[in-house]
Amino acid sequence: MTLFAARRRPDTTRLLDEAGGVRAMTWVMAIMVFLTVLAAALGLGTASAGRLLDRQLAGRLTVQVVEGEAARRDAAAARVLAVLRTMPEVAQATPVDRAELTRLLRPWLGSDAADAGLPVPAMIDVDLAANEDGAAEDRAADRVVARVTAASKAARVDRHARWMSPVSGLMRSVTWLAAGVVLLMAGATAAVVVLAARAGLEAHRATIEVMHMLGSTDVQVARLFQRRIALDTGIGGIVGTVVALGVIALIGGQLAALGSELIGGVTLGPADWVLLAILPLGFVALAMAAARFAVTRALRRTL
Protein backbone atom coordinates (compact mmCIF):
# COMPACT_ATOMS: atom_id res chain seq x y z
CA MET A 1 0.00 0.00 0.00
CA THR A 2 2.84 2.36 0.82
CA LEU A 3 4.60 1.52 -2.44
CA PHE A 4 1.36 2.17 -4.35
CA ALA A 5 0.98 5.59 -2.70
CA ALA A 6 4.60 6.44 -3.47
CA ARG A 7 4.08 5.42 -7.10
CA ARG A 8 0.96 7.52 -7.33
CA ARG A 9 2.31 10.68 -5.65
CA PRO A 10 6.08 10.67 -5.17
CA ASP A 11 7.38 13.34 -2.82
CA THR A 12 9.32 15.41 -5.35
CA THR A 13 8.22 18.92 -4.46
CA ARG A 14 11.57 19.71 -2.87
CA LEU A 15 13.73 18.17 -5.56
CA LEU A 16 15.74 21.32 -6.17
CA ASP A 17 15.48 22.89 -2.73
CA GLU A 18 18.69 23.80 -0.96
CA ALA A 19 19.45 24.12 2.69
CA GLY A 20 19.67 27.61 4.12
CA GLY A 21 16.42 28.98 2.73
CA VAL A 22 17.75 31.66 0.39
CA ARG A 23 18.79 30.30 -2.99
CA ALA A 24 21.70 31.79 -4.88
CA MET A 25 19.68 31.40 -8.09
CA THR A 26 17.15 33.95 -6.87
CA TRP A 27 19.81 36.60 -6.31
CA VAL A 28 21.50 35.85 -9.61
CA MET A 29 18.20 36.37 -11.40
CA ALA A 30 17.51 39.55 -9.45
CA ILE A 31 20.83 41.00 -10.61
CA MET A 32 20.28 39.88 -14.21
CA VAL A 33 16.80 41.37 -14.38
CA PHE A 34 17.95 44.57 -12.65
CA LEU A 35 20.64 45.15 -15.28
CA THR A 36 18.31 44.18 -18.11
CA VAL A 37 15.60 46.61 -17.01
CA LEU A 38 18.15 49.42 -16.76
CA ALA A 39 19.44 48.65 -20.26
CA ALA A 40 15.90 48.45 -21.64
CA ALA A 41 14.99 51.76 -20.00
CA LEU A 42 18.07 53.38 -21.52
CA GLY A 43 17.13 52.12 -24.96
CA LEU A 44 13.50 53.19 -24.67
CA GLY A 45 14.45 56.60 -23.27
CA THR A 46 17.00 57.39 -25.98
CA ALA A 47 14.60 56.17 -28.67
CA SER A 48 11.95 58.54 -27.30
CA ALA A 49 14.44 61.43 -27.23
CA GLY A 50 15.53 60.64 -30.78
CA ARG A 51 11.96 60.72 -32.06
CA LEU A 52 11.32 64.00 -30.25
CA LEU A 53 14.48 65.51 -31.71
CA ASP A 54 13.54 64.40 -35.22
CA ARG A 55 10.09 65.96 -34.85
CA GLN A 56 11.55 69.22 -33.58
CA LEU A 57 14.18 69.50 -36.32
CA ALA A 58 12.16 68.24 -39.26
CA GLY A 59 11.69 71.06 -41.76
CA ARG A 60 13.37 73.70 -39.57
CA LEU A 61 15.77 76.28 -41.03
CA THR A 62 17.43 79.40 -39.69
CA VAL A 63 18.36 82.26 -42.01
CA GLN A 64 21.12 84.61 -40.89
CA VAL A 65 21.74 87.94 -42.61
CA VAL A 66 25.32 88.86 -41.78
CA GLU A 67 25.88 92.53 -42.51
CA GLY A 68 28.00 94.99 -40.55
CA GLU A 69 25.89 98.08 -41.21
CA ALA A 70 22.54 97.98 -39.44
CA ALA A 71 20.57 99.72 -42.22
CA ARG A 72 21.78 97.37 -44.95
CA ARG A 73 21.28 94.39 -42.65
CA ASP A 74 17.67 95.31 -41.89
CA ALA A 75 16.92 96.00 -45.58
CA ALA A 76 18.42 92.67 -46.64
CA ALA A 77 16.52 90.84 -43.90
CA ALA A 78 13.28 92.45 -45.06
CA ARG A 79 13.90 91.31 -48.65
CA VAL A 80 14.67 87.79 -47.56
CA LEU A 81 11.60 87.68 -45.33
CA ALA A 82 9.38 88.87 -48.18
CA VAL A 83 10.78 86.20 -50.49
CA LEU A 84 10.29 83.44 -47.90
CA ARG A 85 6.66 84.39 -47.29
CA THR A 86 5.87 84.06 -51.01
CA MET A 87 7.31 80.54 -51.33
CA PRO A 88 4.84 77.61 -51.19
CA GLU A 89 7.55 75.44 -49.59
CA VAL A 90 7.57 77.71 -46.51
CA ALA A 91 4.84 77.25 -43.94
CA GLN A 92 6.03 80.03 -41.64
CA ALA A 93 8.86 82.58 -41.58
CA THR A 94 9.34 84.54 -38.36
CA PRO A 95 12.03 87.15 -37.72
CA VAL A 96 13.80 86.75 -34.40
CA ASP A 97 13.41 89.82 -32.22
CA ARG A 98 16.65 91.63 -31.37
CA ALA A 99 15.69 91.60 -27.70
CA GLU A 100 15.57 87.80 -27.86
CA LEU A 101 19.00 87.72 -29.50
CA THR A 102 20.32 89.97 -26.78
CA ARG A 103 18.96 87.65 -24.12
CA LEU A 104 20.61 84.66 -25.81
CA LEU A 105 23.96 86.45 -26.09
CA ARG A 106 23.98 87.84 -22.56
CA PRO A 107 25.59 84.73 -20.93
CA TRP A 108 28.63 85.21 -23.20
CA LEU A 109 28.76 88.99 -23.77
CA GLY A 110 27.24 90.30 -20.58
CA SER A 111 25.98 93.88 -20.73
CA ASP A 112 27.69 94.40 -24.09
CA ALA A 113 25.06 92.20 -25.70
CA ALA A 114 22.61 95.12 -25.53
CA ASP A 115 24.96 97.49 -27.38
CA ALA A 116 23.12 98.81 -30.44
CA GLY A 117 26.39 99.02 -32.37
CA LEU A 118 27.19 95.35 -31.90
CA PRO A 119 27.15 93.67 -35.34
CA VAL A 120 24.61 90.96 -34.53
CA PRO A 121 23.18 89.24 -37.62
CA ALA A 122 19.47 89.37 -38.32
CA MET A 123 17.87 85.96 -37.93
CA ILE A 124 14.72 84.43 -39.35
CA ASP A 125 13.20 81.13 -38.20
CA VAL A 126 11.72 79.13 -41.08
CA ASP A 127 9.31 76.19 -40.90
CA LEU A 128 8.94 74.25 -44.13
CA ALA A 129 5.59 72.90 -45.22
CA ALA A 130 4.87 69.44 -43.83
CA ASN A 131 6.20 66.67 -46.05
CA GLU A 132 6.36 62.96 -45.28
CA ASP A 133 9.04 62.35 -47.90
CA GLY A 134 12.53 63.16 -46.64
CA ALA A 135 13.88 63.57 -50.17
CA ALA A 136 11.11 66.04 -51.05
CA GLU A 137 11.90 67.96 -47.86
CA ASP A 138 15.56 68.20 -48.89
CA ARG A 139 14.57 69.50 -52.32
CA ALA A 140 12.31 72.09 -50.74
CA ALA A 141 15.15 73.20 -48.47
CA ASP A 142 17.46 73.47 -51.49
CA ARG A 143 14.94 75.74 -53.24
CA VAL A 144 14.68 77.91 -50.15
CA VAL A 145 18.47 78.22 -49.97
CA ALA A 146 18.66 79.20 -53.65
CA ARG A 147 15.95 81.87 -53.33
CA VAL A 148 17.39 83.28 -50.11
CA THR A 149 20.94 83.59 -51.40
CA ALA A 150 19.59 85.16 -54.61
CA ALA A 151 17.71 87.75 -52.56
CA SER A 152 20.79 88.68 -50.52
CA LYS A 153 24.43 87.67 -50.79
CA ALA A 154 24.76 88.30 -47.05
CA ALA A 155 22.22 85.58 -46.20
CA ARG A 156 23.24 82.19 -44.78
CA VAL A 157 20.90 79.25 -44.26
CA ASP A 158 21.43 76.69 -41.48
CA ARG A 159 19.59 73.38 -41.66
CA HIS A 160 18.86 72.16 -38.15
CA ALA A 161 18.60 68.51 -39.16
CA ARG A 162 22.09 68.55 -40.66
CA TRP A 163 24.04 70.09 -37.82
CA MET A 164 22.15 68.00 -35.27
CA SER A 165 22.47 64.75 -37.24
CA PRO A 166 25.50 63.58 -35.17
CA VAL A 167 23.35 63.82 -32.03
CA SER A 168 20.55 61.84 -33.68
CA GLY A 169 23.07 59.25 -34.83
CA LEU A 170 24.47 58.97 -31.32
CA MET A 171 20.99 58.40 -29.89
CA ARG A 172 20.28 55.68 -32.44
CA SER A 173 23.58 54.02 -31.61
CA VAL A 174 22.80 54.09 -27.89
CA THR A 175 19.36 52.62 -28.57
CA TRP A 176 20.80 49.73 -30.58
CA LEU A 177 23.52 49.21 -27.98
CA ALA A 178 20.89 48.95 -25.25
CA ALA A 179 18.92 46.46 -27.35
CA GLY A 180 22.09 44.42 -27.79
CA VAL A 181 22.72 44.45 -24.03
CA VAL A 182 19.17 43.21 -23.40
CA LEU A 183 19.70 40.33 -25.83
CA LEU A 184 23.06 39.48 -24.24
CA MET A 185 21.49 39.48 -20.78
CA ALA A 186 18.74 37.17 -22.03
CA GLY A 187 21.36 34.82 -23.44
CA ALA A 188 23.34 34.93 -20.21
CA THR A 189 20.17 34.17 -18.24
CA ALA A 190 19.46 31.12 -20.40
CA ALA A 191 23.06 29.94 -19.88
CA VAL A 192 22.79 30.37 -16.10
CA VAL A 193 19.54 28.40 -16.05
CA VAL A 194 21.09 25.59 -18.11
CA LEU A 195 24.05 25.37 -15.73
CA ALA A 196 21.76 25.40 -12.70
CA ALA A 197 19.56 22.68 -14.19
CA ARG A 198 22.55 20.47 -14.96
CA ALA A 199 23.93 21.00 -11.46
CA GLY A 200 20.56 20.03 -10.04
CA LEU A 201 20.50 16.87 -12.11
CA GLU A 202 23.93 15.86 -10.87
CA ALA A 203 23.07 16.66 -7.25
CA HIS A 204 19.81 14.66 -7.35
CA ARG A 205 20.76 11.90 -9.76
CA ALA A 206 19.92 9.15 -7.26
CA THR A 207 16.51 10.65 -6.53
CA ILE A 208 15.74 10.97 -10.22
CA GLU A 209 16.68 7.32 -10.81
CA VAL A 210 14.23 6.29 -8.08
CA MET A 211 11.56 8.48 -9.68
CA HIS A 212 12.14 6.75 -13.00
CA MET A 213 11.76 3.35 -11.35
CA LEU A 214 8.48 4.55 -9.83
CA GLY A 215 7.21 5.45 -13.30
CA SER A 216 8.06 9.16 -13.66
CA THR A 217 8.87 10.27 -17.18
CA ASP A 218 11.57 12.69 -18.33
CA VAL A 219 8.89 15.31 -18.98
CA GLN A 220 7.60 15.03 -15.43
CA VAL A 221 11.09 15.45 -14.03
CA ALA A 222 11.68 18.43 -16.31
CA ARG A 223 8.48 20.02 -15.03
CA LEU A 224 9.83 19.89 -11.50
CA PHE A 225 12.91 21.76 -12.57
CA GLN A 226 10.78 24.21 -14.53
CA ARG A 227 8.58 24.93 -11.53
CA ARG A 228 11.52 25.45 -9.17
CA ILE A 229 13.46 27.64 -11.60
CA ALA A 230 10.33 29.61 -12.51
CA LEU A 231 9.79 30.37 -8.83
CA ASP A 232 13.40 31.49 -8.38
CA THR A 233 13.31 33.60 -11.54
CA GLY A 234 9.95 35.13 -10.64
CA ILE A 235 11.02 36.16 -7.14
CA GLY A 236 14.38 37.45 -8.33
CA GLY A 237 12.78 39.20 -11.30
CA ILE A 238 10.29 41.02 -9.10
CA VAL A 239 13.01 42.18 -6.74
CA GLY A 240 15.31 43.27 -9.56
CA THR A 241 12.52 45.04 -11.44
CA VAL A 242 11.27 46.96 -8.39
CA VAL A 243 14.77 48.18 -7.56
CA ALA A 244 15.49 49.06 -11.20
CA LEU A 245 12.23 50.99 -11.59
CA GLY A 246 13.05 52.95 -8.44
CA VAL A 247 16.49 53.84 -9.83
CA ILE A 248 14.97 54.82 -13.18
CA ALA A 249 12.38 57.06 -11.52
CA LEU A 250 15.09 58.74 -9.44
CA ILE A 251 17.34 59.39 -12.45
CA GLY A 252 14.35 60.55 -14.51
CA GLY A 253 13.48 63.13 -11.88
CA GLN A 254 17.05 64.41 -11.87
CA LEU A 255 17.10 64.67 -15.68
CA ALA A 256 13.82 66.59 -15.67
CA ALA A 257 15.23 69.01 -13.08
CA LEU A 258 18.09 69.96 -15.42
CA GLY A 259 15.70 71.90 -17.64
CA SER A 260 17.41 70.79 -20.86
CA GLU A 261 15.05 70.09 -23.77
CA LEU A 262 17.41 67.52 -25.29
CA ILE A 263 18.22 65.63 -22.08
CA GLY A 264 14.68 66.12 -20.80
CA GLY A 265 13.46 64.26 -23.88
CA VAL A 266 14.96 61.05 -22.46
CA THR A 267 11.66 60.08 -20.88
CA LEU A 268 9.51 56.97 -20.63
CA GLY A 269 5.89 56.90 -21.65
CA PRO A 270 3.14 54.82 -20.01
CA ALA A 271 3.65 51.99 -22.51
CA ASP A 272 7.39 51.96 -21.73
CA TRP A 273 6.74 51.63 -17.98
CA VAL A 274 4.31 48.77 -18.60
CA LEU A 275 6.86 47.02 -20.82
CA LEU A 276 9.55 47.33 -18.15
CA ALA A 277 7.17 46.10 -15.44
CA ILE A 278 6.25 42.92 -17.34
CA LEU A 279 9.84 42.16 -18.34
CA PRO A 280 10.19 39.58 -15.49
CA LEU A 281 7.45 37.51 -17.14
CA GLY A 282 9.60 37.21 -20.23
CA PHE A 283 12.53 36.09 -18.09
CA VAL A 284 10.38 33.49 -16.35
CA ALA A 285 9.24 32.08 -19.71
CA LEU A 286 12.83 32.07 -20.97
CA ALA A 287 14.09 30.34 -17.84
CA MET A 288 11.39 27.67 -18.01
CA ALA A 289 12.12 26.95 -21.66
CA ALA A 290 15.87 26.75 -21.02
CA ALA A 291 15.36 24.47 -18.02
CA ARG A 292 13.06 22.12 -19.93
CA PHE A 293 15.49 21.92 -22.84
CA ALA A 294 18.53 21.29 -20.62
CA VAL A 295 16.86 18.67 -18.41
CA THR A 296 15.15 16.64 -21.13
CA ARG A 297 18.29 16.62 -23.26
CA ALA A 298 20.50 15.55 -20.34
CA LEU A 299 18.09 12.81 -19.26
CA ARG A 300 17.90 11.36 -22.77
CA ARG A 301 21.68 11.14 -22.83
CA THR A 302 22.41 9.77 -19.37
CA LEU A 303 19.37 8.02 -17.96
Automatic annotation (TrEMBL):
Gene source species: Sphingomonas longa
ABC3 transporter permease C-terminal domain: residues covered: 181-298
Keyword list, A-Z: Cell membrane, Membrane, Transmembrane, Transmembrane helix
Matching Pfam families: FtsX (PF02687)
Membrane topology: Multi-pass membrane protein
Membrane-crossing segments per the record: 21-44, 174-197, 229-253, 273-295
Localization: Cell membrane
Name of this protein: ABC3 transporter permease C-terminal domain-containing protein
PANTHER family noted in UniProt: CELL DIVISION PROTEIN FTSX
